[in-house]
């Protein structure tokens, strides 16, 4: 075992350089005591030392005294040393201290055990798997340095150190440039003859970028070129550019392409060779956009077989596993074609790069960047429950955290995770659960019930929450301090600004529906709307600059696009791709996490005499609203853009699958009259009004003309009365009854008792599903709460009217119980689920006939994949 300092070993032990001060064992440099010399090189001598304060071994590099004679040079050296010391990354040299001894500057750094990459490559090229591993670590280290504005400018195998446990360290960040005399530019050649092939000039010149060779300034893209030459050498065992002299080597860098890697190593997959070639582009603008791009390409490549990985276009990768459908393949192909078309028509435009992170069949429900470079995401794969996964670690691939039924909400700077567990569907997208905190190495600890969504404050301790309280929602920051309240709609995606002075959120005026606006509230509770009128909106994040809010939404239909809105309300389109795009997170470095795929809502029906289930969906977003008592007719609602044009449209369809009959525009179609002649729906106005649409000849009849916001409705069996839940201005929600022919609404329940309503077969009572299920006589009488029905939905009434069929949304399969109204006794009567549960987000909106011979229910399915995108502006 050999020990080396985390600095370049540029020569043999005992070699003296310039005017460097020679130190003997026992010499003190501040709290550091010299133990023994380690080596020497072109930039000074290196010693093993002991830090007496912290009791650790360190390396000290003493630079030539000539540095101190040039004050400008010394100042720049000190600046860069301090900048390097500010870097805190496992793949970068740790610098502890700087100082001066007898006029010679010195650097104190960590002491490592292992060897330089140069020594590692002396015998043979690296195996492909090992080369990818080392390259990925180097790229992550470069990305961390570049994020802080520090460029290396002298990457080469001598400046890459591999420890005995396989960790890669980048050495001497920036010292190559800042320790040169002022009159030595990047274009001048600093060469070093290594004792290998006689007469061959190696060293810095062989790893310079074309712009450095031409004497132009070097930036982060120059590091990517040097990185490419190192990766080439790790795979082939030969330098990418070499000549008999420095001039010939520089000429090759500027004008020639290195030999194909497959000429020297047939095991190199084409995808990996493309990565190398992309790094070695002569024009800096044509290389990868950043080291983050390189790291993610290598991360994705490491998670697939080296013999099957392929790249459709540079930085756009795709892999099909198992039963990933043709839709996903078509979407990625469309993305690739879009990138190619953009490059043809806009050759100088910035093209986003897409890095696929997941490859299984199912749904990614949430995803967040972690401070250590990982991506944490929640997903339900292959019909299994939601589970929390981690990807983007140094080992590559995806690893389960072992935490189930948990949606990742946010990750603090310290790596602590914020989760929502045990979600329960209340209505549509409203699915509150238990908020929990989970340090990276610990199980979740519950902290608050009934939370829809949450986010960390910038301090990593305070939490912003959307708290579901009865029939209303509260936006709280920190938790417990109410900034905004809504009683008629709901709130999602709270996002605290980087400064912690604002909280952005999505505001939805209709309970359960995801239409709405992007809003802001300050810490004094002053709320303003930035953009509104969206048909659907999901996903919200502050941009990396903190000057915009990015969100995924649409004006019509189901498929979402990515938009940005600044704090003044100026809106712009950021990204449109085929299929559905949902924003998951925006990293501080500008990377974006999106889930892209296909969403669809099926309508499954089983009716009398039908041997198997049938899908009655009209297009891609059909919702079941009612089934006739004989099981022959179904009331459906459709929102697909191509069918409904962005408006909610109501259809009547026979359960045998016959062509649907369009009844007209309407929202939340709720009921069919007992004789099947009328459908009960809401208008798409504000506030919504209750309307009856004829299923045959006749004209629509608007039943209400009031200021009540109507939520749910049903028709009594006599066909002459409608019962609905709603909210009057300045009042709490309650339940009302109204004559169909004349008269206004009359309260059935006190304020605070409202929810989804279902009228009894005899027309004398109404069941109300709110915090729990109540049963109320429609003509006055005592209100009865059924015990044990918290958070339950109503599927229907029994024939005798003495019990209800209830279920809890969000479960797969959904368990349906018959519950006695009198005492709350429950009996399981059915489990409902489609044969294929992959990608199923929720099963709900169940409706059953009184004798349980006919069923209809909705299945929301989202088959998507997670991508990291770089280059979005």
What's the arrangement of secondary structure elements?
Elements: E1 3-5, E2 28-29, E3 32-41, E4 44-51, E5 56-62, H1 66-69, H2 71-86, E6 95-101, E7 104-116, H3 117-120, H4 128-147, E8 160-163, E9 168-170, H5 175-178, H6 210-213, H7 220-236, H8 246-255, H9 270-279, H10 291-302, E10 311-313, E11 316-317, H11 326-345, E12 353-356, E13 362-369, E14 375-381, E15 387-391, E16 398-404, E17 406-411, E18 417-421, E19 433-438, E20 445-456, E21 463-469, E22 472-476, E23 482-486, E24 490-496, E25 502-508, E26 516-522, E27 527-534, E28 536-542, E29 548-554, E30 561-566, E31 571-575, E32 580-586, E33 592-606, E34 614-615, E35 622-627, E36 633-638, H12 641-644, E37 649-654, E38 661-665, E39 667-672, E40 678-682, E41 690-694, E42 701-702, E43 709-715, E44 721-727, E45 734-739, E46 746-747, E47 756-759, E48 765-769, E49 773-777, E50 784-785, E51 793-797, E52 803-807, E53 814-820, E54 826-832, E55 840-848, E56 855-870
Antiparallel strand pairs: 1-7, 2-3, 3-4, 4-5, 5-7, 6-7, 7-8, 8-9, 10-11, 12-56, 13-14, 14-15, 15-16, 17-18, 18-19, 19-20, 20-21, 21-22, 22-23, 24-25, 25-26, 26-27, 28-29, 29-30, 30-31, 32-33, 33-34, 33-56, 35-36, 36-37, 37-38, 39-40, 40-41, 41-42, 43-44, 44-45, 45-46, 47-48, 48-49, 49-50, ...
* Broad structural category: mainly beta
- What's the CATH topology label of the largest domain? Transferase(Phosphotransferase), domain 1
| Overall strand count | 56
Q: Mean of the pLDDT scores?
A: 81
Top-tier CATH class of the largest domain: Mainly Alpha
CATH superfamily of the largest domain: Transferase(Phosphotransferase) domain 1
Strand content: 35-45%
The gross shape turns out to be elongated
> Distance N terminus to C terminus?
49 Å
